[in-house]
Each structure stands twice: as C-alpha cells, then as structure tokens.
Write a structure and sequence with these properties.
Elements: H1 6-18, H2 26-34, H3 41-49, E1 53-56, E2 59-62, E3 65-66, H4 84-99, E4 104-108, H5 113-127, H6 129-135, E5 149-154, H7 169-177, E6 183-187, H8 192-195, E7 200-206, H9 211-217, H10 221-225
Antiparallel strand pairs: 1-2, 2-3, 4-5, 5-7, 6-7
Helix pairs in contact: 5-6
The structure holds zinc ion.
Amino acid sequence: MKTMGTGFFILAVFFLTACGTVTLSGEETQDHAAHPKDYSVAAIDDMAALPDIEMVDGVTYVDDILVVNEAFSLPASYNPGLQPEVVEAYQQMFQDGSEEGLDFVLVSDFRTYQYQEQLYNSYVARDGREAADEYSARPGHSEHQTGLAIDVGSADSATTLSVEFGDTPEFEWMESAAHEYGFIIRYPEGKAEITGYQYEPWHLRYVGEEAAAIYESGLSLEEYLGID
Ligand SMILES: [Zn+2]
C-alpha cells in the first residue's frame, strides 16, 4: 500500500463509472488502507477476506501477483520485455513435451504498449470498435505487455491461435502439466464473463509457484484472487 499514488484513485473512479460488474470497489480498498490499526476480530476477518491490492508505478499487484485485465491496465511506459524466468520455463516445458512426442511452437510473447495500440487501432479501422473489443485487448490491457504471457501452438499450424488448439495432443498434455512450470491457462473455457476473454487454450500466463494452487482450485485468476 505504501506506494499507492494518484494512479490508484484514477483507477478507482474508472471502476465506479465504467465497470459496474467489478464487485471490489475502490472505496473498500481505500477503507482497508485507512484503518490498518483496527485489530478487532471482525476487522481482521474483513481484512482476510479482501484481496491485497497494491499499485506500484501504475502496475497492479493483487496478493503480489501482477494483474492485467479489462479493469487493471499497464502504463504505456511499462516495457519489461519477455522475462527470463518465462523463457526458462517454456523452454523446459517444450523440451519435456518433446520427450513425450509433442511438438510445441512459441507463437507470440512480449508486446509493447505501442505495438498493441497499433494492432488494436488496425482492428478498429477494419471491423469497428465494438467488434475489435470482442477479440482484442485495448492498449495497456494486454497481458502480453507484462512479459509474463506467451501464446503457444503445436506443429499443426492450422490450430494456431484458434480454439482447435484445445483439441491437440499438445494442449491435452499442457493443460495438466503447465502449472508444474509456473504457467496457468489464463482464459479457461466457460470463464469469459469473468476474465473478459473467450476461451484461449493457447494463452499461458506465468505466475511462478502459485500456479499449482491456482490449477488445483480450478478457478480463473480473477476468481482465485477474489477480484471477479
Ligand atoms: Zn495471448
């Protein structure tokens, strides 16, 4: 909470005016931060139930996990590149997969804010804003800008970035193994209302050790963190 700056309050206003479905209001969080010394049993129960949301230089962490979705964005200047732990994790996963006779392909990884902006604007020009919002993240709202997300395909390129990837042997193996490498299937089937994205079997998000608990829970990241 210590570094929470003006960005937080701008975000809170955005929540209240533009996003009626987000149940965690900025008000609750501010209240939580404003009474750190209330140690009554009821207050401690309340605090345990609330996710710990922290903003550092415009980047949102919920219980120490970086979160980007329709509600939480990244600043245009956030430009970390693909993180080395992610490279190590996916290379190991691809290698272990190949020993099972599977053939993984890295389809995309880090994207800058500016690149996402170009992509999004080209979609808007082609299909209109409403249609573009159905399938593309707005700039600042793509998880690829975190340097912690990758899109994975199989040798069968016909399934690249399509739900059919979910029917490949590669996905079948990856679905139950990705967490061992620190990844979660970020946009699972049937969770579009919560994550804001249709089922994307190809999109992996690196969260590190906590991936196992998220996998076991069967929840989307938003549900797991209590920000759905
Ligand atoms: Zn992706």
